[in-house]
Structures are given as C-alpha cells and as structure tokens.
Amino acid sequence: MNIHPKKSLGQNFLTDPHYLRRIVDAAQVGAADQVLEIGPGLGHLTRELAARAGRLVVIELDERLIPRLHEEFGPKPHVEIVHADALTYDFGSLTGTWKVVANLPYYISTPILQRLIGHRDRFTTLTLMLQKEVAERIAASPGGKEYGFLSVLVQYSASPHREFIVPAGAFSPRPKVDSAVVTLTMRELREHIAADESFFLRVIKAAFSQRRKTLRNSLSQLGCPKGVMDAVRSGTGIDLGRRAETLSVAEFVLLSDFLGREQIEK
Hints:
Layout: E1 13-14, H1 17-27, E2 34-38, H2 44-52, E3 55-60, H3 66-73, E4 79-83, E5 98-103, H4 109-118, E6 123-131, H5 132-139, H6 149-157, E7 158-166, E8 171-172, E9 179-186, H7 197-209, H8 215-218, H9 226-230, H10 232-236, H11 249-265
C-alpha cells in the first residue's frame, strides 16, 4: 500500500538506516527497557526499536498507517500498536519506567514535550528528533538568544544532551530545515523545586512573552501588587531591570517562589 505523507500532520518519514540506528544507539535501548515510540510513521524506526527493546508501545495518530503497522509488528508479542493522539494520550497509564524515542512533528513538538515533561515520573530518558532550532533552544544556556521558555521548562526537569544533526536529505519528503536528535535525562533528584509548579510555568511564560522588555514590564501581566514587585530585589537578589534570558533556572524558581508566597501573604 502506497501511503503519501500528510502535510497536515507534519509527516516527514526518516528513511536513512544510518540515522535510524544512531537514534536507537543514542537512546541506549536494550532488552530490559520499556520503550514508548511516538509517531512511528511507516515503521522504519520501529523496526530498529523492536529488535532491541524488551517491550515497545507505539502511538500513531494517522489511521491510514495502523493496518500497516499491525501487519508488520502485530505478530511480535512485545510490541503494542496504539491508535491515539499523543496530545491527549494518558501517559500516566503507563506502568513502570520508560524510555521515549520519537520523531516529533515540528508543529506540535513543544506541546508534546510539555506533556512528557509533565509525566516525568514515568520516563527515564526522552530521545527526540526535533527541528534543529528547537533542539538548540532546549539545550541553550542563559544569556543567549536561543535561551527561552522551552530551555527553562526542560532544564528544570531534565538534563539535555545534543546528540547529532540529521540532514533534511535523510527524510521523505525532504523538509526545508535540518533536524537534530537530543536526549533528555530526567533528573531523579532536582536541586531546585518550585513550591507551585503551575505558577512557576506562568512566571516563565510571562517572562519570555516580551523578550525585549525588562522583567518588571514582562511580569506585570501576572497582576502582582507593586509592593511585591518592589520587594523582589531585597527578597531574592534578582534585579527586575534584567531581561528574562539572563536568569538561570534556579533564579526562576527563586523568583516564582517569592512572588507566589508574597501574593498569598498580601
């Protein structure tokens, strides 16, 4: 059956066996591992994973691909094909710990990544193929133009490692930009933990919503009283005249905790 990639689903199938093997190598998949693959497409990466993993669950949204995946992988007792949307799939239903391996469509990579991070207790590592620019943002350090909301979100929960570049020519159809593989290792013991993680997310979203403005201006959308904002420097040592990209993850946690606590007390 000849299946053409759907543009609406951002489908670009990785077909180069060299890069397929390198992705599975980077994920360090072995017989003792439970692996979750998101977006298997035509099953090229799935074959490599099925040959090494102890258990493999595959989530595919495109109903056209399900019969093909069942035909090839259905007879393998350790492989389960699930017709579902990764944006709504209940990751909390997974038992035990898992490694995630995925070629994420560019247009939904950030929301899927946020959902995976939100279920970090289920995962030991996420080995993801993303648009090169997104991978660079994930691994960026404070002070650079790539450092932003996604950098803080990921680095709060995981340690990112850039693996390698995957050129556009390795895909069918060929995308307009190169991709990159990054492995995120979940932090078992996080050094800095926000008292209210939902408020922490609000703070970093607000901080980076207007990158060119100072923190005092960008954080005004949180609605904190002026007295609380004026007390930030004495309470945390953070100058609200700085811009968001200069703050470390630890400073964002400190800022979030102070603003959240002060709002409650006021």
